[in-house]
Predict the 3D structure of the following.
Amino acid sequence: MGNQLTLAVAGSRKTQGIVEHCASLSGDRRVLILTYTQANQEELRSRLQRYAGDHHHVEVMGWFTFLLRHFAKPFLPFKFSGQRVLGFNFEGRPRRMASGKSRFLDSNGAAYACELGRLAHELVADSKGALLRRLECIYDEILIDEVQDLSSHDWDIFDVLLRSSIEVRMVGDIRQSVLATNPRSQKNAKYSYASAISWFRERQTEGLLEIKDSVVTWRCHPDIAAFSDTIFDPSWKFPATQSKNEAVTDHDGVYLVASKNVNEYVDLYQPQCLRHSVTSGKNFDLVFLNFKVSKGMTYERVLIVPTAPIAKFIASGAYLGAIPASSFYVAVTRAKQSVAIVLDDPGKSTLQFWQPRQNEA
């Protein structure tokens, strides 16, 4: 079938689609599923056991584990004779001018996470093809979930995989690009976060990849889906979201809530309260989750304390930059039925203000 990327909107059942694909394969198909976060790895394992428990050649692995197990550990001697990888250093960083082995390994022989992608990519060449041939012997197909989380030298590794005999299938939502495997690196910075769409479109032009859009959300109410489509500048050319959420409650859609009415709103509707960081929403005695932490979660209703740029976007239509737009998109699309945004000055916004019931007429 060739290499494929499915760009799926929030609530489109991306992970379930991967599981159902695995269940449809022949039992002897050797498949590796890669994803960045541990939470997503556990979710995939749980669903695979439920829906494809008889497929014993399907393996779930984290991205860093993949680079350690199939690149760094077996092939490090091709770069540094007699050396072995003796651990994994997630938080540490090499000295600024470090070179040679000390660029990639700490004093205990543990591989630096921030340099692991670079090391893995260099080992492809240093092994003179042995690394890739081994990988092709182990797997028929590699699936990558939440592909938008990858960054830096990861894109160079993808270039290698796309040109291999292994079928590569990727699933992600570029608009939810709020995490990164190596956020500090400047390597391939032009493809960071939501800008990864450019990398994919370039590979499609080369004939290495087919891009498909999955535009149906089963989570978000139609009004929420429509609002989420306005968050990114039209120049991104994202397709419109189609909602299959047909539920009707007494409070559906996207609303503004004045600060003075927030407590009453929360008491009445019990939304999950979201904020950008701990510096937001300090004047409210509420239990918050940060936008990034909420990624992957679903709630009936959410209440959002906006940043200044988000408030400006709502009041004037001034588009957000890629990263803040992704954060806001994640927050909005956690909700099934209603989104409330705390704002006192609506400016030119056409969103309706929620009014306490005693003031409703």
